[in-house]
Amino acid sequence: MPLKFANGDTSSIPVHVVKKDAFKGWLASQPEEVASWLGRTGFEAEAGESQLVPGASGNPQMAVVGYGTAKSRARGRFHIARAARALPKGTYHIASGLIGPALEEAALGWLLASYRFDRYRKQKPQKARLKAPKGVDAARLEVIAEGEALTRDLINTPASDMGPDELESVFLALADQHSASAAIISGDDLLKHNFPMIHAVGRASDRTPRLLDMRWGTAGPMLTLVGKGVCFDTGGLNLKPSSSIGLMKKDMGGAAAALGLAHMIMSLGLRLRLRVLVPAVENSVSGNAFRPQDILTSRKGLTVEINNTDAEGRLVLADALALADEEKPDCLISMATLTGAARVAVGPDLAPYFADDSGFVGALEAAAAQVCDPVWRMPFWSPYENLIEPGIADLDNAPKGGFAGAITAALFLRRFVENSPKYAHFDIYGWQPTAAPARPKGGVGQATRAILEALPSILEI
Hints:
461 residues; Leucine Aminopeptidase, subunit E, domain 1; protease; Aminopeptidase
């Protein structure tokens, strides 16, 4: 379902966005019939509240949308998207009340509110359409919405229809769309090409494990994205309980986010060289599943003691990160639905990330605030390094005790990155547990818009 502005429509209904503390003054400037109508309907300009105002003929002459107070706006984002869902059928344009980043947020939120996942059931389209506001880069916003829709579609699709084969098909289609090159290493060839941990995690499934590798661009600094593509995670022999296994179709959310971001980068033609790596596996249970207490030797040569087969994401990422790091990219980013500890720490709405480079951190934090894509920095806390060193092997994939689980997972991944000057790891959730403005319940992109906005500063392009 394309997320586009209604630029072909010749007529549209003006939308006036009004802050609550300015509502009385705005109302005093309006014709008496407008003030009377809004008074009778009880409109108070709360954030996202909307009201259609009829003209003398009975047709709507305007829509008024509340922007609330600074305090109420701080308690959420994409408030105007609530109006997009509530207003009746028609084409609208934002006539007043918003400028700059706030106008851009409103326009993008309106687009994202029209997203529907309709693969298995016909969904009613959004009735209210928006003309691209003057002063925003409409084409860029449409590209961002397309990338977000790709991420959501991939996460929302159940594992029955989104296993490693299907993820590979989407990967190749994206490469073809953007004239990028792609290579696939699968099955026992993973061992021949020295990806032993990707093979170990995926070998128990009858859906062949693989590593997906895409390249795009010939000039500029190099950016490599590594996305966790565990298409379903049973937990392996350390089988997940029913309370934890229900949402595991989203365990490839890191890959989905990386592909959505890659689509944005390539569609916008950023001057950089892009590489995308996705280890695509299913963590299943069978007679040849990898076991607790096994010791695996990684691509990098580091040995890893397996103390929980449900901590498999860091294993497949480690081999992919080692490959990426061999090329010494200017910036290396991993994205994964990696730990429950991250969810406990910051909840589902924030995207925790780990980074040591101050330039990366500064650019990302500024960008996240600018585009309303919240992130939260977590520490690569080196004093915890001993927690991931079991003694019998170089590394432990699941330290005992449960403390600092997100940090120890990030430290584990950092062991496989030595040559990349800017490395960041995002431990995202990838799921909207309850519907919110511009974000229906289900799969969701996190941190991708912030990264996209920050890239020109991070890579100096």
